[in-house]
Amino acid sequence: MKISPSVLTADMLELKNAIQTLEKSGADMLHLDVMDGNFVPNISFGIPVVDSIKKHSHIPCDVHLMIDKPHRYIEQFAKSADYLGFHLEAGSPVKETLLKIRELGCKSTLTIKPKTQPEEIFKYLDYCDMVLVMSVEPGFGGQKFMENSLLKLKVLKEEITRRNLNVLLEIDGGINNTTAPLAAKAGADVLVVGSYLFNSNDMTKTVKELKSL
Ligand code: DX5
Ligand code: ZN
To answer: Residue 172 C-alpha to ligand 1 middle, in angstroms?
Structure first.
C-alpha cells in the first residue's frame, strides 16, 4: 500500500522535521491540500507553500486542489507538483485540464466528492493517472470516514481493471487503523492519512503499519 500523508493537520512551522521523519518512515508521497474558501468552506495554503515544501522534500508532491475553476492555476501548481489533482465538481473543462496537467509534466488526478457517483468519471479515465475518492466532505481534517466510498472504490477498481488502465486509486478522509484495511480490501492503492498520523505518538510506526496493508 502507498501512503500519502496529508500535512493539513501538521504544525506548519515544524513541517520540515515532519517531512524528514515521514520520508524516513517510507511515506510514498506528500499530500498537499490547497483550499480557497470558495470551493470548500476553509482556507489552507497556496502556491508559495507548495513550492517551499517541494524544495525540502525528496518524495513526490501529491497536490489536491480544492479551488474553484482550477484550470486557471494549473501552470503555477505544475511547477512543484508531481501528482496534480482537481475536483470534477470545480467548474473546469475536465478533459482539457487533465491533458494540460500531463502536458506540463505532471501526473493527473481527478477527484470526486462524496455525493458524486463513480460512473460520472468513467469517460475521463483514459486521461487520469490517479483517481481520488473523497471519503469525507472536502475542507477539513479529522472527519468521520463515509462508508459509501468503499463501494465507489470497488466500482472504479472494476472499471480500471476491465479496461486494463494504469490508474492509481486514492482515498482521502477519515483513514485510520480501522478504515485503512477496509479501503485496501475495496481496491485503494494510495491512502491519504492526515489527523490519524499527525496525532499518533509514533509517526514512523504508524506509516509502517499502514504500508504493510
Ligand atoms: C480534507 C482533505 C484531507 C484531510 C484528511 O478536505 O482533503 O486530505 O487532510 O485528513 P484526515 O485524514 O484527518 O481525514
Ligand atoms: Zn486531500
So the answer is: 6
The structural domain count of the chain equals 1
Per-residue pLDDT of the chain (213 residues; tens, 9 = 90+): 999 999 998 999 999 999 999 999 999 999 999 999 999 999 999 999 999 999 999 999 999 999 999 999 999 999 999 999 999 999 999 999 999 999 999 999 999 999 999 999 999 999 999 999 999 999 999 999 999 999 999 999 999 999 999 999 999 999 999 999 999 999 999 999 999 999 999 999 999 999 999
Domain with residue 139: its CATH number is: 3.20.20.70
Ligand nearest to the CA of 143: 1
Prediction pTM value: 0.97
Domain that holds residue 6: 2-211
Category of 142 on φ-ψ map: left (φ > 0), alpha (ψ -120 to 50) or beta: left
What one-character DSSP code corresponds to residue 6?
A: B
Pocket test of ligand 1: the residue of 192, 198, 203 to mutate, having most ligand atoms within 8 Å of its CB, is 192
What grid cell was written down for 25? 518512515
Spatial separation of the C-alpha atoms in residues 63 and 88, rounded to whole Å:
15
